[in-house]
């Protein structure tokens, strides 16, 4: 057998096949983590979902914790990308920009409940994801601070009062979406987004109060 034949199989070289296996494991991780939770995501379960041999799991991930982290980061990247694209394309008015971002978040986290569960629920309970959840909350608060500069009345995005206000807004929004995801809050999507938009706009009033 030639070297080229040994390297290629079904039209893919070794690197492409490894990448394909990793993608399948990520899809399995999304399904299990987002449906049955972190405790259900074992190596055995991931292999059962993909039909791969055990050695191929460890080819891509050192542990199930590492798979959890990779899945979380993949979903978070989708959320962040959607939020930034919404901000870039929305009109410059604050209400329109906030509403566009909220719609983008709902599209990712509520339209696919698995993704919402991973970011809003499992990240709270999983030791592997807990620190990442806090980092993510800080990043989203930073995005809010960066793009809502008109509400900060000349304060820098990293000023203490701005950070507190942004973090409070992001935390409240996340808890509200988690309640919707759990079926404990039944609201039409547009009504939900409208309510959250007004509440986020209201943080400007609160910010004025704590900085005056």
From TrEMBL:
<protein>
    <submittedName>
        <fullName>TetR/AcrR family transcriptional regulator</fullName>
    </submittedName>
</protein>
<dbReference type="GO" id="GO:0003677">
    <property type="term" value="F:DNA binding"/>
</dbReference>
<keyword id="KW-0238">DNA-binding</keyword>
<feature type="domain" description="HTH tetR-type">
    <location>
        <begin position="19"/>
        <end position="79"/>
    </location>
</feature>
<dbReference type="InterPro" id="IPR001647">
    <property type="entry name" value="HTH_TetR"/>
</dbReference>
<feature type="DNA-binding region" description="H-T-H motif">
    <location>
        <begin position="42"/>
        <end position="61"/>
    </location>
</feature>
<dbReference type="InterPro" id="IPR009057">
    <property type="entry name" value="Homeodomain-like_sf"/>
</dbReference>
């Amino acid at each position: 057998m030639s070297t080229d034949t040994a390297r290629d199989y079904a039209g893919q070289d070794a690197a492409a096949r490894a990448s394909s296996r990793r993608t399948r494991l990520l899809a399995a991780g999304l399904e299990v983590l987002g449906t049955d939770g972190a405790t259900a995501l074992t190596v055995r379960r991931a292999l059962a979902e993909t039909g791969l041999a055990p050695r191929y799991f460890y080819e891509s991930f050192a542990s199930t914790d590492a798979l959890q982290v990779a899945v979380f980061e993949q979903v978070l990247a989708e959320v962040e990308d959607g939020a930034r694209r919404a901000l870039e394309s929305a009109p410059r008015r604050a209400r329109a920009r906030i509403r566009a971002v909220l719609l983008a978040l709902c599209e990712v986290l509520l339209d696919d409940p698995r993704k919402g569960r991973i970011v809003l629920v499992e990240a709270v309970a999983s030791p592997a994801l807990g620190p990442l959840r806090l980092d993510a909350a800080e990043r989203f608060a930073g995005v809010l601070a960066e793009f809502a500069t008109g509400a900060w009345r000349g304060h820098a995005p990293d000023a203490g009062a701005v950070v507190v206000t942004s973090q409070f807004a992001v935390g409240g929004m996340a808890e509200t979406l988690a309640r919707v995801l759990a079926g404990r809050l039944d609201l039409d999507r547009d009504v939900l987004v409208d309510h959250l938009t007004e509440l986020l706009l209201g943080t400007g009033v609160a910010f004025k109060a704590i900085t005056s």
